[in-house]
Description:
Blueprint: H1 18-27, E1 39-41, E2 44-46, E3 55-57, E4 60-64, E5 72-73, E6 81-84, H2 86-92, H3 97-101, E7 107-108, E8 122-123, E9 126-127, E10 133-135, E11 138-139, E12 155-162, H4 166-169, E13 176-182, E14 190-198, E15 202-212, E16 219-229, E17 240-253, E18 256-269, E19 275-278, E20 283-288, E21 297-311, E22 316-339, E23 346-373, E24 376-404, E25 421-440, E26 443-462, E27 468-486, E28 492-503, E29 519-531, E30 537-549, E31 552-559, E32 562-569, E33 572-585, E34 590-605, E35 621-630, E36 640-649, E37 652-653, E38 661-662, E39 665-675, E40 686-693, E41 701-704, E42 707-710, E43 715-723
Parallel strand pairs: 10-13
Antiparallel strand pairs: 1-2, 3-4, 4-5, 6-12, 7-8, 8-9, 10-11, 12-13, 14-15, 14-43, 15-16, 16-17, 17-18, 18-21, 19-20, 21-22, 22-23, 23-24, 24-25, 25-26, 26-27, 27-28, 28-29, 29-30, 30-33, 31-32, 33-34, 34-35, 35-36, 36-39, 37-38, 39-40, 40-43, 41-42
Subcellular location: Cell outer membrane
Main location: membrane
GO molecular function: siderophore uptake transmembrane transporter activity; signaling receptor activity
Amino acid sequence: MHKPSRTMFRLALAGTSLLTLASLALAQDEGTTTAGGATVLEDIVVNGGSGGVITADGYVGKSSATGAKVDTPFIQTPQSISSVTQQQLEDRNPQTLLDTLAYTPGTRVGGYGFDPRFDSFTVRGFDVTYTGVFRDNLRQPGAGSSLFKTEPYGLEGVSILRGPSSALYGASGAGGLYNLISKRPTEEALREIQLQYGSHDRYQGQFDLSGPINEEDPVYYRLTGLLRSADTEQVGVPDDRAYIAPAFTWKPDEDTRLTILGEYSRTKTGGTAAYYYDPITGKVSDFFAGNPTFNDSVQNQGRIGYEFEHRLNEVFTFRQNARASWLNIDADWAFAYQPNAADPTLLDSSAGSFEEWMNTYTIDNQLEAKFETGALEHTLLTGIDFTKVYWKSLNGYGVTPPLDTTDPTRGRPTDPIGFQTKSVQDQFITGLYLQDQIRYDALTFTLGGRYDWVSTDTDNTDLASGALDTIKQSDRAFTWRAGVTYETEWGITPYASYSTAFSPNAGVNMATGNPFKPTESEQQEVGVKYLLPDSNTLLTAALFNIDQTNGLYYEVVDLPTGPANIQVQRGKLRSRGLELEASTSLDNGLSLIASYTYTQAKIIDGPAGTVNNDVSSVPRHMASLWAHYTMPEDGALAGLGFGAGVRFTGESYGDDANSMKNKARAFVDASIDYDFAAIDKDFAGLKLQVNATNLFDRQDAVCSAGFCYRDQGRTIIGSLKYSW
């Protein structure tokens, strides 16, 4: 999919510092409960609201702060919202973010086939890789190949808000946002270690430790980590990772909480994972298009941040969330793109090297007020947030010896490629927002608006000549949301909403050297949510219409150095569709999630030959079903659990010209687990689990924007976990 391709900043809320608020917290009367309170999720006490933590019962998410930045029941949120809960993560044992999201409605995770370099996906027909991934309710920017990698073992869950959502969150895309929720300290002791072995010599060890520091102080910790050495199905593409995530919570009273979240990871994989696409036959071959001897990608990344919450009195609660993040990626790549004119057994190849740095700083200041005006109950939220993004990219392009299709090793020694261009971009975003959730009897009205100011400076340098091109860009926009929900006495809640989004884009168009314009979108949505009485079951349905202008996409473009898959910007897209979702966890041991999505994504204004065509790699139909059953504790098979799922993706086009098609496909996943405590209480805490994805090893070709891959093949992973 992607092109083969430090600054310091201080943010403070004027007149209010964290230390001042902490001092104020200590001066408050003890015994008052926090607004929203501490959330209990499956017997684990977690942070109450600001990070978007999910309140869930098994597979069924009930509320989070993702839909409104304050903890709000899903049925009162006037947009399509769903979740991946902690129990789902434990049962499915996902190894990537894409695995984590594979069973959520509207989410297209296979558009780029097997590619461990990036977590790239779309929702409702729109790419959300750069603008729709948030971490703990704070934006996680991306540019070029600088995309933060996600380790699912470090997550408590994912909360998903579909559709434009800039009225609160500012820079975000048309499809919506995926809020990745980091593991937080627990007030009760939690300890586990786990060993895994799986396909392609995958060895992994991991641990998760949490609880109070001691019995006297209100300080809690969590330390999560893993170490992995793994090959993949593609020669020259490893999947190695080291990951560590410390966290601490200080809770001096029920009105005050400070949580510090840290993370560091190092990941090694390949610079490309593409298969060769034959332009003559129009088919994807079985040949790896890369060069195993010139195909390295190493990414180091880290983040440190905090979430502070203090209830000032019965009306006001102040929150301040902040994070500093950085990453560095260094890669070499090569890929074959056409038959050699002199020897048909050879394929001409291009190659390149790139190194990128990204530093991001973001801080969000919120003041929540709960009060009444006559018969109306208000939850008023005001806030101001700041984001600073620094991105630097060095690129070099050249050639590599042709791919010899008769050589099974595919090895072609390649000389190092020097950098030829440098791009540096500084971006600063300020957003001021206001939202009122107005409750009248069974009606909830949500009204919100936000104004963003964006300043972007871009320097492009030709390293050979020293020529410098500087571009300054200033953008501003007002975005808003209006919605209403009505909770009937039968538990059925219809809703309707209108929302908009504005997203400034980091990075540059490699073909023109110009920065990208902001992407804008608007959505109309109606739907219904049904929380079944006396049953832990949630059913939802949504109809939507989204218009987007100036979106970013990847296309193969002829550059002076040869064809390259780069980001480009388009005119207008329209997506219309239907989403159905069901989730349940019953007392009889059965848990289930199911979804169906119909999406019609069209190019309304675009390059010649694409207008009124379907958007590349967006299927009209998608469906999924996953179920897990635990045998009764008093039966002969006590301790045994089974899981099975199927993910269906319908036909789609492989390019915007709609000249080739991706055929429909279905993938089957399965799991089996056994709790040894069923044999003897002395084995309590010991659990064996085996998970399989794509059980029948279906590896069809899949093309997006004319660039082709193959689906990831079968993966089987066994894990032995001990908890105490």
